[in-house]
Amino acid sequence: MSKEMMYQRDVYGNTLVELGKEDKSIVVLDADLSGSTRTSFFNREFPDRFFNFGVAEQNMISTAAGLASCGKTVFASTFAMFATGRAWDQLRNSVCYSNMNVKIVGTHAGITVGPDGATHQALEDIALMRVIPNMTVIVPCDGPQTKDAIKAAAKMQGPVYVRLGRAKVPTIEGLGNFELGKANVLKHGLDIAIFACGIMIQQALIASEELSKSAIECSVINMHTIKPLDVDTIEKITEQVNSIIICEEHSVIGGLGCAIEEVLAQRGRGVRVARIGVNNRFGQSGNSKDLLKEYNLQAEDIIEAAKKLHSKS
Amino acid sequence: MNEKDLTKKAARMRRDVIRMLEIAGSGHPGGSLSAADILTCLFFNVLRHRPREPQWPDRDRFHMSKGHCCPIWYALLADFGYFPKKELESLRSLGALLQGHPDSKIPGVDVASGSLGQGLSVSMGMALAGKMDNKDYRVYCLLGDGEIQEGNVWEAAMACAHFKCDNLCAILDHNRFQIDGRVEDIMNIEPIADKWKAFGWEVIGIDGHNINEILNAFEQAKKIKNKPTIIIAKTIKGKDVSFMENVVDFHGRAPTQEEAVIALKELADE
Question: How far A24 CA lies from chain B's nearest CA (Å)?
Answer without folding.
Answer: 10
